[in-house]
Fold each of these.
Amino acid sequence: MTLPDGVVRRTFDGRERLATRGEPVYGEPTDGPWRLWDAGRSKLGAMLELGLDTGLAGGESVLYLGAASGTTVSHVADFSGPTYAVEFAPRPARDLVDVAEARPNLFPLLKDARKPATYAHVVESDLDALIQDVATRGQARVAARNRQFLRDDGRLLAAVKARSEDVTADPETVFEDVLDDLRATYEVLETARLDRYHDDHLAVVARPRTTD
Amino acid sequence: MTEHDSAGWFAAVDPVDLDGAREAIEDGSADEPRDWPALAVDAGFAADDGEYYDRLHEATVRATREAVRERERADDQQLVHAVRSMDDAERTANELAERVAEWAGALFDEASTGVAGAREVAERAPETAAERRVVSLAERVVDIADEADDLRAFVERTAPAVAPNLSRMAGAVLAARLIALVGGLGDLAKKPSGTVQVLGAEDALFAHLAGRASSPKHGVIYTHDYVRNTRPEDRGSAARALAGKLVIAARIDHYAGDMRPELHEELDDRIAAIRARADS
């Protein structure tokens, strides 16, 4: 499994860690132009660290849902092309704007990922990747509604959070339900538990189901 | 912008007008995404993709920064005024509606009670001077009841911006009531949870402190599903758990402002455990 261009493994404090090249944003350790991408703070980082085949080669156009303060999306923008970052809560979006300011290919949007019509006039069609990390009930529904932004052979990279769907149910059951819902619009290519880095999260790599 | 729903954000925007761009990004919509960079170049909004993305970057950063600032300025005091006005308007509408019902009952054959009754009376064509007065009064009742509805809609829109966690946990109206009872979000954030548990039950609390009654188990938080729909012997536990998390939610909203889903999950877990006692 190869990392996307622009993401490398470098040694920080004696350990091999992921890094991207860009302006530091949250006080992360740096090594020359490279800054540490902490898989423990980023679900996409954990997916790359675990060797999932994300289909990312570098330079992709990306829609990122649930950008929060912009920690992960700052790394995504470091190795991607146009990157649209959607976040719904004002407080973290304030930090996201600061992160975006220094990155000309990062476009922050204060929008609700459950309502794509409110940003479809800004986000372009035929994107290469849809990265989703939203802590809301109905994560499969969010992915389905945002399918319209993805090109037919694009990739959905989702971190599904069990506790957002149902706190009392067993995570395995929740993941099965979410995957079942997801299969209506996507073909699931690969899944992996992220527990080493993030409790009760399932990483999903999927491709849009085409109608033909 | 909003003329038709297949246009990009840039359609009616002058490339150098950042305020116009901000408005278009914030308020616009489209039924589906399209190849906006190419369409923008075709429309002469930008010379090439690179210039389009530069303009998009400038516009989205500006739009989002302004939108964040506006949402954060959403003021807890406006919310306090609105929820108090809403309660006053509802109470006044109900009182006057009873007056209308009493009077209309003497003039018309069938007259039902409440605001719904007043709405019926307001529709009538009066024939005498007395009827004119009662129909006019009923119209005022309808106006006040409509105003109460509008105020409720305003509260429901504003509360999540002022206090996202508290509103998600308590619902917009109860969140606003709690804030109004202590006077502000900052004040609520500084209250101990035992106080929040009995906010709105001051009469019962002071009767208890004077030794005349048992301590109240809950105040306005009684209207919350987690208290009301828990069986009576467990309601004290439920109210205590809810009040504890509400105070934490208020503190996060006042001092941090981001949404913390874990907090809501913890409360859901706790209430599920309390309710499970009924099964054992």
Amino acid sequence: MTVLLSVQGVTKRFGGLQALTQVTFDLPEGQILGLIGPNGAGKTTLFNAINGTYPPEEGRIIFRDKDVTTLKTYDHARMGMARTHQIVQPLNELTVRENVMVGACFGRENQSLRHAADIADEVLEFVELKVRADQLAGSLNVAQKKRLEMARALASRPYLLLLDEVLAGLNSSEISNMVETVKKIRNQGITIIMIEHVMKAVMNVSDRILVLDYGEQIAEGTPEEISKNEKVIEAYLGDPKLAEKLLQED
Amino acid sequence: MKYWRTHLGLFFPLLVVAGLVLWPVVTGNVSNRESVFTILKAIALASSLNILLGYTGYVSFGHIVFYGFGGYVGLYFINEQGWPIWAGLLVGGISSGLLAFLLGKAILRLRGAYFALATIGINEAMKALINNLELFGGPIGMTLNFSVYKAYGGAAQALGMSFYIMAGLTFAALIASHLVRTSKFGLGLQAIRENEDAAEVMGVAAPDSKTWAYVLSAIIPGMVGVLFFFKNGNVEPHVAFPLHSSIELLVMVMLGGQGTVLGPILGAFAYQGMRGYLVTSDIFKNIQLSVSGVLLLLIVLFIPAGAVGWLRQRAPVFRRVLA
């Protein structure tokens, strides 16, 4: 199996705050890696380090055999790394279709406007936003905006997709809908890292899971291994017994 | 079919400007020609500013610096080196573009109010520099040798020719504005306007795009400067770099509708019309700029999208024809 992304000893500080400490993992092509951890554990910071928003102080990011540690975010995007944001960032005064066209035009495939429009329609169909294509992005509701984020990322035809809490704020039927979408994306051969708080969903779709706590990598393994890992349960809930109870309820 | 729909937005802007240009030609009235010249100049400058302000979302309070600087350089070569007008126009446009390129590399990393403040500083710094530059005549400026006009068949002919060059520059500004708006480059600019960080994550190389937008928005003002000073016969620092003109340009773009091709045209037309009334009225002639200030305030408060933007929001029909 080829390694698509290799994160090697990544460390990030914000002033006195140690946001990430020596995070190291390899991500094989075609897998879904779940990234979990309590609030403030450094999950989004890890995304920011991987895609060049805030380059790390130490360590290296190797993407498709190239060192991308110090490249800009737009270079990452052009090399085939796309992401969605935890707090949705629609281009409000542009239409939904134009939003997605930006992804297609400036992403990995560097499409012309005309092709981008076709790709946008195709991707909007896939995320079930086709009927909203001519609406302004600012007029969508939260669930639709999350789908728009996804569509923009997909339109760039990425090798790696970073999903930052795409399920947060969605109701249960929207969640199962979105989980199906994520699975379909993986089946297209796109490698995914997803940050998620909805445990049931992330355990269900991930091939492997990485757990962060206070910027440190406290566990990595299959969903089964992680759910039985005492360190993880403690970090999350403080009380292992309570954790077991919650998992059973799920 | 698709081709026509893309370029439908250029129809009204071209029609309005063509009507303006034809008016003095048909009536043969020289005073009309001078009024239209002033309006065309405002349209060309406002449309250029719109590339930066409307499409990219960066507010420049000192855009007139490109008009003044390009004008000075062009007039210098026409007057002192004996270059023909077209070469002067070219060198004026290129030097303004070059100035914007260098400035862009330095100050386009600033956002919002900081960028706006920096642009004011640049205009004032350039005015001070030219004021002390012997090559360009220092505080006295430069006066065109009358013999320069001879090459064009005398002063009257040169003035007539200036009008047609102005018309050409205005059309060029419109077409540039339309091409940017409907291009992939323009889509990137609009993404930057809406959310620069998100645009970068999607792969828009914001620093480069912004710099090129700045350069594009500077070239035509530089050429307009050369033409205007050529026609006037002289240039002085305070005439070349008037800060209030930068603000008037902002009012024009905001009034008509930023980020549209037609907006700056209507805005420039309406503003020049209003200004013409105000400066000749007994009550308003001394407080003409205050009226512009109040107007800007009202626009920002009540119709931030400008006239064309407002219409586009009201009725989908307009979205297709008004661009």
